[in-house]
Amino acid sequence: DDDIFSNAFCENSERLINVHLFALAAKYYSLSNLGVCTPLEDVLEALKGDSEGATGIKPDEFMNSKKSHEVQVMSELVDNIANYCGIKQVIDIGSGKGYLSSFLSMQYNLKVYGIDSSSSNTNGAHERNRKLKKHWRAYQSRGTENLKSQSLEKANNRPVESEIKCKTINEELLNNTNSLQNQDQVIIHDLVPSCGFREMAAPATNAETEADLVTWTQSHETKLSEEVLAILNVLPADAVEDFSSSHYNCGELCEEEKVQRKMTSLKAKARKSSESNLYCPLTSCITAETELSDIITDLEDCMMVGLHTCGDLAANTLRIFTAKPEIKAVCSVGCCYHLLSEQFENQEECHDQVWGFPMCQYLKDKGWCCGRNARMSACLALERVAVGQMLPTESLFYRAVLQVIIEEIYGVTKSDRHVGKTFSKSSSFIDYVRRSLKKLELDDSKLPDSCIMDYYEKYKHRMDELEAFNMLKVVLAPCIEVLILLDRLCYLKEQENIAWSGLVKLFDPVKSPRCYAVIALKNQSC
Question: Looking at the Swiss-Prot or TrEMBL record, what is one Pfam family this protein matches (predicted)?
């Protein structure tokens, strides 16, 4: 196969001469074709999980469709791994605004620490979680009202035999709902419409039935208010309004009973607030040498997760996982390959530096280097292009001509500064160039508009050529991503304390192009 694919290039000039063969070779060496991935369904089955996902809160109520898809799939997997390992603490590295962290804590009742280097992200996570809690309260209240109304209707209309049968079924459901999250699922989805009625040997009168219903409703709401309090303590107490059972219309209650319920709720709230929050956003820069115990005072057996950890952070997450015995599992989805540091990219050797690539000894021994251009290509989304989401050719053309301008006019070939998303803010090519030069801290006064437009006209006819070149980069992107991901997997395979490690395709690549997770579990003795 290697001999056949080599015919895509001219032996002497090494130029591409057969585009079709080049595309076939790229497909052949893509991750989906190599057979090295473990299907997500197989992983969930091995963990004794449910591949259909948990019911309850739907993340699309709180985030866009892409993030919702990522959070829903990954959180289910994380919960299954945590249950398999018998742990309740999760550390979310590069947590950003806490989309995954907050969902793990609220939906699965996991104790999550979200660590991000940006204080603005951490503050955003606090604010976002505050809003989530308010929505959660309303969500619970709606579920309770539906529960009561359906209970009244079914109590009046259903035959006694059906009530007894339903009671038996729902008692089994309640006995199996050991976690707070599962209890919430039963409440929200009205799975226990008549649970709590006593079995009767003879038909009951409407008065007796209503009396039983009032008794059950009162006791059930007291229990529910305490359970919701536990969830609502995800943030400090002042983040939401005071919550108590007096907010519910439970019928006529004596003052003594109201006070008793109020005290019960306050005690539950005080007890929970004395413990660590279910979700705690923290600001800290994570490196391979980071001591998590310096950041998290109550660190216990836990797992590390990362949803689109940027550049070296994905590699450092794996290094911390292998080095710390208290971290029992890891699930990491990386991104931003262009920001990876490479050991063999520059000639200068820095013996003390920890590099993002390569990680495994095999590639280190070969002195393997990708280079920035290849890593930039690895970030492209072939699946999106394949369904018609074309490359932004005009913005790429603007950027390419800008590169020529700053090299020829200013003599700059390398800069630590970045142009960023200037194209979307620009009204024309002239505007784009001037905005970009300011970002690069270059004097644009020496460059008249006419000169800028001369460069534009000079290269305009090559825009189609640029588009074809970028399409070739897109085709090659999966092969470069394979190299980076297999390097991380091989690094885990080299460790002695790993029970299992693998690559798993988590997401729909059209919705989320960086869709592969590196997952590993340690030996139970470790």
Answer: Methyltransf_32
Domain encompassing residue 497: 6-139+276-387+476-522
C-alpha radius of gyration, the chain, whole number: 29
CA distance 167 to 436: 69
| Residue 157, phi then psi, degrees to nearest 5 | -105, -25
- The secondary structure of residue 338, as a DSSP letter, is G
458-507 per-position pLDDT tens digit: 999 999 999 999 999 999 999 999 999 999 999 999 999 999 999 999 99
> What is the Cα–Cα distance from 89 to 298, expressed in whole angstroms?
10
Choose one of 416, 436, 460: the last residue of a domain.
460
Question: pTM of the full predicted structure?
Answer: 0.70
What is d(CA 429, CA 401) in angstroms, rounded to the nearest whole number? 10
Same domain, 446 and 302: no
Full DSSP string of 364-425:
HHTT----HHHHHHHTS-HHHHHTT----HHHHHHHHHHHHHHHHTT-----S----S-GGG
- The chain-wide mean pLDDT, for the chain, equals 78
Could you give the dihedral angle defined by the CA atoms of residues 350, 351, 354 and 360, in that order, rounded to the nearest 10 degrees? Answer: 120
Identify the residue whose tokens are 């907050």. 102
pLDDT digits 0-9 by tens, 53-96: 444 556 666 678 999 999 999 999 999 999 999 999 999 999 99
Is residue 241 in a domain?
Answer: no
Residue with the larger pLDDT of the pair 375 and 223: 375
Strand duo 111-116 + 302-310: pairing = unpaired
Q: How many domains does the chain have?
A: 2
Measured distance CA(46)–CA(438) in Å, rounded: 55
Residues 129 and 60 occupy one common structural domain:
yes
User: Residue 486 is encoded by which pair of tokens?
Assistant: 């297999």
Rounded to 5°, the CA angle 442-446-451 comes to: 110
The average pLDDT across 395-416 equals 93
Q: Report residue 320 CA to chain centroid gap.
A: 19
